[in-house]
Amino acid sequence: MVDRNDGDMPRRAPFLRVPKYFGQLGHFGQLGRSRAAPNVHADQRRPNAAGVQHMLQTSPAAQSASTRIAPAASSDVAIDLSNVTRRFVTPDGKAMTALRDFTMTVARGEFACVVGPTGCGKSTTLNLITGLAPPTAGEVRVMGQPVSGIRPDIGFVFQTDALFPWRSVLDNVAAGPMYRGASRKQAYEKARDWLNRVGLSRFEKHYPHQLSGGMRKRVALAQTFINEPKILLMDEPFSALDIQTRTLMQDELLRLWEDSGASVVFVTHDLEEAVALADKVYVLTAGPATVKSVYHIDLPRPRVMEDIRYDPKFVEIARVIWEDLKQEVHIGQKRTLEFGH
Ligand SMILES: Nc1ncnc2c1ncn2[C@@H]1O[C@H](COP(=O)(O)OP(=O)(O)OP(=O)(O)O)[C@@H](O)[C@H]1O
User: Fold this and answer.
1) Pocket of ligand 1 contains residue 119 by CB under 6 Å
2) Given 28, 55, 95, 193, which residue has the most CB atoms within 10 angstroms?
3) Which fold has domain 31-63+79-153+229-341?
4) How confident is the model at residue 168 (pLDDT cuts 50, 70, 90)?
């Protein structure tokens, strides 16, 4: 199912990077066309004068197979961005709008992925949730409260590791609980437990530079999950890893997340990754970023990453979303070519 907003929102200035989707998704067109119609359909919301809301079916099969998902009760909502606009002042003193009229709701325990063209405003979305970037207009609420400053129940994982290079693996993982007031004994017991959960018990005395990229990422996950975050914000956390390690880490993340009950917002350039992980995929416009469509991914859980990519339903869902996203990527690419950045 998809909620769509692809109306007449103004488009913004050009992008800095060439989109990465083309190489990754070239095969969907071929595989998808011979498959059954996807189990998704679209609600199309156009922000025009009449404010018309109507249903757009992607296929007859979709019509029968899908139902509208009722909005969560407010007590079930973990993250709520309501009609948020975020403007920045650029280094040359001009105002630029990164996000416009942006609305997103993530339920408690839900895994939401955000995809969109390069530079459209995905990371800004995460910064709004953290409170690092207050909204220029609209409202951001976390666990029912307006965001004011950084919350201790939010965990982060970024593309680059946030490990202390001068601390051992064990010291790195124990740092969070100690900072939050646990005794040294409690913190180290908990850290050993988490290192065990991510399969790194034998490496507790190693330093980050003595680990592989995948192992460092496991430490980063242990370092984050040990603090029992209610909200987990992830910004392309696995994009620097090779594909095999990335697949392993995606499985690891799902396993830890399923036990944690955290609500996740996961930003990625990789649509396959988004579909494989998410309950819900937000497709953003080429900018200023607004929500173009929301796809509810009804693939069963638990999911095994190395298998799910060959599931025909997965392939078809990814193909449908890619058709939608591709339009925005083309807009971004056109701007890059026209404006040279
Ligand atoms: N602090 C800031 N000051 C000025 N402009 C900013 C600031 N932060 C972000 N921007 C601009 O806002 C836009 C969106 O940036 P953002 O990093 O959110 O995009 P993104 O989709 O995460 O990018 P990418 O795909 O490259 O990871 C960009 O044009 C960026 O230059």
Assistant:
1) yes
2) 28
3) Rossmann fold (3.40.50)
4) very high
CA of 247 to the centre of ligand 1 (A): 27
88 lines ligand 1 (CB under 6 A): yes
Mutational test site, ligand 1, from 84, 96, 235, 283, max ligand atoms within 8 Å of CB: 96
Domain coordinates in residue numbering, the chain: 31-63+79-153+229-341, 164-228
Q: Which long-range contacts link 94-97 to residues 24+ away (Cβ below 8 Å)?
A: 96/12, 96/13, 97/12, 97/288
Taking only the tens place, the pLDDT of each residue in 108-125 is: 999 999 999 999 999 999
Q: What is the pLDDT of residue 334?
A: 84
286 Cβ inside 6 Å of ligand 1: no
Closest ligand 1 atom, CA of 90? Answer: 4
Residues 6+ positions from 340 with CB-CB distance below 8 Å: 14
Mean pLDDT of 58-74: 39
Ligand 1 centroid from CA 86, angstroms: 11
Instruction: Provide the pLDDT for residue 35.
Output: 29
Residue 40 beta carbon below 6 angstroms from any ligand 1 atom = no
pLDDT of residue 339: 67
> Is the shortest distance between the CB of 98 and ligand 1 below 6 Å?
yes
This model of the complex carries an ipTM of: 0.97
**Tokens 């839900």, residue located:** 110
- More confident site: 60 or 128: 128
CA of 98 to the centre of ligand 1 (A): 7
| Residue 237, ligand 1, Cβ within 6 A | no
